[in-house]
Amino acid sequence: MKILNSELSSETLEKTIYRYVEALDRAELETIAGVLDLATNNPELSRAIAEINLAMQDEMELTPLATDAGIVRTLIHKHLQSAESGEEKDVVLTVGEVAAKLKAERRVPFTDEKVNNLLVNSQEALPAFLSLEATKLIGTELGVKASDRFWRAFRDAAITLSMGRGRETQLLAARRQRERKSPSVARRKPPRSKRHVDGEE
Amino acid sequence: MDDDLTKHGSHRRDSSASISAGQNRALLASIIEQEWQNLLPGIRVYVKKFDLADHFSTIDATARAVLQDTVVTALANSDNYDLRRLPLPWLLGIAINHIRRRRRDRGRIVAIADVEPPQKDRGSRSLTSDEVFDLLQYAGNKSGSNRYTAEEILSLVEEDDRKVLALAFIEGLRGKALAARLGISEGAAWARTSRSLSRLRKAYFKSDIGKGKKA
Question: Does the CB of A23 have a partner CB in chain B at under 8 Å?
């Protein structure tokens, strides 16, 4: 499909790129939004923005994690799956686990500590997609009240945990698949060191 | 749903488009899978720059949360996405809107220290970045009619900035070519040139050359 291309002169393009860098350095959100809007129609500007973001990420040492690809695939897969079938599979994360994480990381606001201690014991399962509204609804269903700050921290912790869980599930599935392909090899394979010694001697 | 979040770059598809809403959604999902490598670094940078988090672990967690919000919003509003538009800036625009919302929810204000104080009126206005660009561009063209040479203007800044700006505006190296000469990435080359221009703008404003250029 042909991309709409708003022609920018090389000078205008260059000035816009410099404006983007300057806006990032000065934390000017509206300027960045404006440049991004312009970039939706200009491949060169879009590419320069991607390059600059990567360079800034390196500069600020915001190292990407190796699990990023899996995270996005899991997100998309879960979202499409739940939207199309109305089902949510692999829901294993509980309210208690998230509350425990918050407590362990000391991220519970002082005023919400009692609420979090109550939630630590909850085995209530969390939905795969957790909007802030859905997070607050959990509180309502469990009959607890907490600050917005608490629910925001709760949601962030839940997302972090579920992403890690998604990665573990993927690894487990991959291992099962390998084992299904060669069950006899998997069962009969002797310890590597022993086999090595036998083969040589 | 979340219409305000996709307002940036939201372009409804042409009614004559033959692609169904479901196909549009599936295509967008596939595009997101391809673009995540460019999307997430941008979100991390925004989270850090807009002060939503300050430690790596919290920056990463917040960036992931914003990424999730962005993907969900994009897919939920896939009907609004015109496939002829470039996806990365559209998705980054949604991410920016989520960041804006988070900042608003937190009641944060822009860190005053990060904002350059307004220049005092000295009877002339300071140059904008675009004007400094034009000044160097024309001086670099060596047309002979310029009031100051590029070398004179570049003498206002330190060696590092002078080197970058001379390569860009006298030798005409930009983007990949400039990056190759400096031995850095293309993005880093754009960033360095922009920052060197910014420092030149400040130096020019304070200099005799700048005062001589009163409008």
Answer: no
Pick the closest to residue B2 from B82, B65, B95 (CA basis): B95
Of chain A, the percentage scoring pLDDT greater than 70 comes to 63
CB-based contact, A195 to chain B, within 8 Å: no
What is the three-class DSSP state of A22? helix
pLDDT, mean of each 10-residue run, chain B (215 residues):
52 50 82 85 93 80 91 88 87 95 72 47 58 78 63 88 92 91 94 94 78 51
DSSP-H helix ranges across chain A? 10-25, 29-39, 43-59, 68-85, 95-104, 113-120, 132-142, 148-181, 183-188, 192-200
Please give the radius of gyration of chain A, using alpha carbons only, rounded to the nearest integer: 24
Please tell me the distance from the alpha carbon of residue B203 to that of residue A8, in angstroms, as a whole number: 29
* Residues 66-105 in B contacting A (C-alpha not used; CB under 8 Å): 67-68, 71-72, 75, 82-86, 88-90, 92-93, 96-97, 99-100, 103, 105
For A149, list phi and psi in degrees, rounded to 5.
Answer: -60, -40
Q: Which of B11, B90, B191 comes nearest A55 by C-beta?
A: B191
Residues 144-173 of B with CB under 8 A from A: none
User: Following DSSP, what letter does each residue of B31-69 receive, concatenated?
Assistant: HHHHHHHHHHHHHHHHHHHTTS--SHHHHHHHHHHHHHH
- Report CA torsion sign: B58, B60, B66, B71: negative
Half-sphere exposure of A11 (CA within 13 A, CB side): 11
The CB density around residue B181, as the number of other CB atoms within 10 Å, is 15
Query: What are the pLDDT digits (tens) for A65-84?
Result: 544 656 666 777 766 666 65
- CA pair distance A101, A103, nearest whole angstrom: 5
Check CB contact of B23 with chain A, cutoff 8 Å. Answer: no
Angle of helix A43-59 relative to helix A29-39, nearest 10 degrees, comes to 140
pLDDT at A192: 46
pLDDT of residue A13: 93
